């Protein structure tokens, strides 16, 4: 994986050791090597600061020159993918759940693919940049010092409501996907725009579980918005998201 130039090889190996000191307590060598590939191919220049931490992944802000990116790293150690593994296989296009590294890498690639399909048809979501193994690079949402906050921590304006429901509708009608895990924790708010995130588990609209998951997504978001006095009707919102009516008339 290294250049034949000895000086360059030594420099890279030294930086890899430094990276291992920082991430070694959380990530195995497989993950660290995937991260480092993104440095050696000039996708990334440096890590800036952590954005979010969860059971399955960590998200960092990274940069290359003056450009910022979000880097989502799915954990290959200390992760809790057992429930996902149970339902993987054919539904999510993951063909091997016994090999944990391969499974998690396929999961990262799935999120890349879903984000690509969603943003291509107009869903407001971080645009995917590159995926290497279990490491996904995507559009960074926020300023160079502070990442965009979650919807749960923001003022819920009429524009936020409209944009959020429009994204759910576009995801369904144009990308032919159902998110399946929506809540106020799965949107970022930045410059009055609502960005859908965490889309790896999205399923196709022709899946047998699509209707159930869409109803759950719509119900959760409608109840959340109604806490702020919007009085949205769940049935009308559901019809809107599948393209049958306009809830804003």
- Tell me roughly what share of residues is in helical segments: 25-40%
Run of helices and strands: HHEEEHHEEHEEEEHH
* Rg for CA atoms: 19 Å
Instruction: Output the CATH class name of the largest domain.
Output: Alpha Beta
Which fold does the CATH topology of the largest domain refer to?
Phosphorylase Kinase, domain 1
Q: CATH architecture of the largest domain, please?
A: 2-Layer Sandwich
Total helices: the number is 7
Shape annotation? globular
Q: What kind of sheet is the major sheet?
A: 5 strands, antiparallel
How are the strands of the biggest sheet laid out side by side? Answer: 1-2-3-5-4
Q: What is the overall pLDDT average?
A: 86
Low-confidence stretches: none
Domain module count? 2
What would you give as the CATH superfamily of the largest domain?
Phosphorylase Kinase, domain 1
Structural class: alpha+beta
Beta strand %: 15-25%
Number of strand segments: 9
* First and last CA, distance: 58 Å
Kindly summarize this structure in a few lines.
The protein is an alpha+beta fold. The protein folds into two domains: 6-139, Phosphorylase Kinase, domain 1 (2-Layer Sandwich), CATH 3.30.200.20; 151-241, Transferase(Phosphotransferase), domain 1, CATH 1.10.510. It has helices at 6-23, 29-40, 82-87, 100-120, 158-173, 210-226, 234-241, and strands spanning 46-53, 57-64, 67-74, 128-132, 135-139, 177-178, 187-190, 193-196, 203-204.
